[in-house]
């Protein structure tokens, strides 16, 4: 099955027909509610105290309804006019804004206590036109998101990465923007139910994130370690390569020749 972001830009893909079909699906409603509740669980917001929350890529307001049920005040932004029109028809309680997250978060610094996003961030990694450079759009999004959150504010975004490179690309942009960053993976062994949650902190929060026993950034850290080892191997000289192999052989209990000034030196060809 094709990924929606590979078919058309979101403002075109989610037209009036797709918006209504998406919102009317009980299966989609259930999944959206489950993922939103999981995002709120990770955020670990102050109980019984309404928080001002930004919903990035709010669509037709399915995740916003959960925010309202949990007692929070929210503002939703989305690039699709038809999705927002469906949200208005459904009379959602949050304020709605037509805006492209790749153009940045258009709010004053320190506006929001927290932010969530459900099934949206991966769209930033696709260049559907020449002016949409993923690296620039990711940087603009995370820089302005950091500004829009209060110090100590938290963000949890469920997303569907196409591959590990996209995870590294997204988390790398978030770190450059100043966030403390991690990725929580639910059901990592399941292809069908596996879910990625990007977890960000803008400074030190009043309440810690609720990560339970989940490991943070495991996939990203492994990827970065692999990349760094490969890069180091490509950069090493012949002499460094020989010394590294000798150390490895010693650890395995094998006898190796002693180092000398001739170790790794190129020999003249014999004619």
From TrEMBL:
Domain 18S rRNA (guanine(1575)-N(7))-methyltransferase Bud23 C-terminal as annotated: residue spans: 215-268
Domain Methyltransferase type span(s) in chain numbering: 54-156
Taxonomic superkingdom: Eukaryota
Gene3D superfamilies with a match to the protein in the record: Vaccinia Virus protein VP39
Region (Disordered): 248-271
Subcellular location: Cytoplasm; Nucleus
A GO term, aspect molecular function: rRNA (guanine) methyltransferase activity
One Pfam family it belongs to: Methyltransf_11
Protein name: DEBR0S2_16248g1_1
Naturally occurring in which organism (per UniProt): Dekkera bruxellensis
């Amino acid at each position: 099955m094709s990924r929606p972001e590979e078919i058309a830009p979101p403002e075109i893909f989610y037209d009036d027909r797709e918006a209504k079909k998406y919102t009317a699906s009980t299966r989609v409603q259930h999944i959206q509610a489950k993922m939103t509740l999981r995002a709120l669980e990770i955020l670990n917001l102050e109980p019984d105290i309404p928080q001002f929350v930004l919903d990035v890529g709010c669509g037709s307001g399915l995740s916003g309804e959960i925010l309202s049920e949990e007692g929070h005040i929210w503002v939703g932004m989305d690039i699709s006019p038809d999705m927002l029109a469906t949200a208005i028809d459904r009379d959602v309680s949050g304020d709605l804004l037509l805006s492209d997250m790749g153009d940045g978060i258009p709010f004053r610094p320190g506006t929001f206590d927290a932010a969530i996003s459900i099934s949206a961030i991966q769209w930033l990694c696709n260049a559907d036109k020449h002016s949409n450079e993923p690296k620039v759009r990711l940087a603009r999004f995370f820089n302005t998101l950091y500004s829009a959150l209060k110090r100590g504010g938290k963000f949890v975004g469920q997303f569907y990465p196409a591959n590990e490179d996209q995870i590294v690309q997204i988390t790398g942009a978030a770190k450059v923007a100043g966030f403390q960053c991690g990725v929580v993976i639910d059901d990592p062994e399941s292809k069908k139910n596996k879910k990625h949650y990007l977890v960000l902190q803008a400074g030190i929060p009043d309440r810690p994130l609720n990560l339970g026993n989940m490991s943070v950034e495991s996939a990203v850290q492994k990827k970065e370690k692999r990349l760094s080892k490969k890069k180091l191997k490509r950069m090493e000289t012949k002499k460094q390569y020989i010394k590294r192999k000798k150390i490895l052989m010693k650890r395995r209990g094998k006898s190796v020749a002693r180092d000398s000034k001739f170790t790794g030196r190129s020999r003249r060809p014999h004619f």
